[in-house]
Amino acid sequence: MLEDYLQKSLATLDHRNLRRRLRVSSKVTGAKVHFDNRTLHNFASNDYLGLAAHPRVIAAATEATQTYGAGTGSSRLLSGSQSPHEELEEKLAAFKDTAAALTFASGYAASTGVMVALADKNDVVLLDRLSHACLVDGARLSGATCRTFAHNDLGQLEHHLEWAGKKHPQAKVLIATESVFSMDGDLAPLEQIVELKDRYGAALILDEAHAVGILGKGGRGLAEQLGLGSRIEVQMGTLGKALGSAGGYVAGSRNLIDLLLNRARSFVYSTASPASNVAAASAALELSAGPEGDQRRAKLRQFCTLIDSNIPAAIHPIILGDEALALAAAEQLSSLGFFVPAIRPPTVPKGTSRLRVSLSASHDATVIKTLAGILQALSLEESLDPTDPDSICPVCGGTLLQEKCKVVCRSTICSYRIVFNCSEF
Asked: In CATH, what number is assigned to the domain containing residue 247?
């Protein structure tokens, strides 16, 4: 009976172009990835500063493994809390200019742990509709009354705050949002959100996962960039993106951290992160906050302008709408040597399937310029004039020809082509 359910569920995913499969790379994390005996330029990694393979980060992880072993053996509240954990948490608190910080085994664990620890059935959680799944899942697990507001819609957020004050006058009201949204690369209107939460007596949980390392002095995030850190009750993020390691963290008041130590189930009941991960993140944090971090951020900003100068983060979505179209475009990019994943529901709303380009300071400018030209060609279905089909191939500089459902390079030595919503796919 279960096997029948599994088969039917997978068949449904296949039919809707929503099935996912693991792809195993045999190459060190970096600007390239190796799949199925092919090396591709990697635009799917969140290693924004290119620190995952940095010699200092690797050396820190290696030394910690030799000193503390491969695993911690227990949760932090038993015997799993080691010196590298304490050192990293002190650095994170200083980095975020808070009284204290606490690390978790993953960013997902940090988000769900915070929500469950701070909210219960008597409380209200208000979430931006495009908030990451970890925030949504944490809110649901808490048992609180949950309401979403349209993405970055301050008017609807204020309406929900007014509603919460009238219908749940005794409740704690928590607002949860990302500072940089993971699938769109846009920023939350953080100044206005902070003003609203102060006006209505709410608290803010801010996920800086895609902002730390990228925005603010030393890569401290959007809260620091706007001078709002002291007005935000809960700041959290991940160690597995710009900081090149794995894990998550929460930063805030001493009382907040002490309560999480006791009530965040994802912390209390999880084996502590290996010292190697923690030491690697600690080294990466130092790099991000120093001169080398500034150099890498400057390089990354230059790369971002090559794709879209209007997006301040390292995430650049190319929204195509249809799932099959997004998969076809990703396959075409793969054939040209670029790994840019197709992002489909439920990760993004229905009808907004897309390519998600993640840039890194470890990339090469020439490669990004080539990719930018290819991405522009993805919109040629509407922009090309059938009476004047010639344009320049972004790969070889040859002449492009528009056919019924694709654009192809006329050169016999170039494999460049972009297929639109065509029956062959």
From this structure: 3.40.640.10
Q: Which of 207, 208, 224, 323 is catalytic?
A: 207
Can you give the residue range of the structural domain that contains 277? Answer: 55-289
Q: Are 218 and 288 in contact (CB under 8 A)?
A: yes
Start-to-end Cα distance in the chain: 33
From the candidates 47, 178, 224, 323, give the one annotated as an active-site residue.
178
Q: Total structural domains in the chain?
A: 1
pLDDT category of residue 425 using cuts at 50, 70 and 90: very low
- Active-site annotation holder among 32, 54, 85, 210: 210
Q: Is 241 a catalytic residue?
A: yes
pLDDT at position 199, please?
98
379 is catalytic: no
**Max Cα-Cα span within the chain:** 73
Please indicate whether residue 158 is annotated as part of the active site.
no
Residue 281 · residue 243 · CB < 8 Å: yes
Answer yes or no: 42 catalytic.
no
Of 159-163, 301-305, 333-337, 389-393, the range with the lowest mean pLDDT is 389-393
- Residue 226 has, within 13 A of its CA and on its CB side, a CA count of 19
Phi then psi dihedrals of residue 360, to 5 deg: -140, 150
Q: What is the pLDDT of residues 248-300, one digit of tens each?
A: 999 999 999 999 999 999 999 999 999 999 999 999 999 999 999 999 999 99
Q: Is 166 exposed, middle or buried (0-12, 13-18, 19+ CB in 10 A)?
A: exposed
210 is catalytic: yes
User: Looking at 85, 241, 299, 316, which residue is catalytic?
Assistant: 241
207 belongs to a structural domain: yes
Is 200 among the domain residues? yes
Q: Which of 32, 54, 96, 132 is catalytic?
A: 132
CA–CA separation, 135 vs 128, rounded Å? 10
Set 17, 42, 45, 46: catalytic member: 46
Catalytic residue, chosen from 45, 142, 179, 182, is: 182
Q: Is residue 122 part of a domain?
A: yes
pTM summary value = 0.86
Is 110 part of any domain?
yes
For the CA atoms of the chain, what is the radius of gyration? Answer: 23
Average confidence score pLDDT of the chain: 90
DSSP letter (8 states) at residue 78: I
In degrees, to the nearest 5, what angle opens at C-alpha 90 toward C-alphas 58 and 64? 30
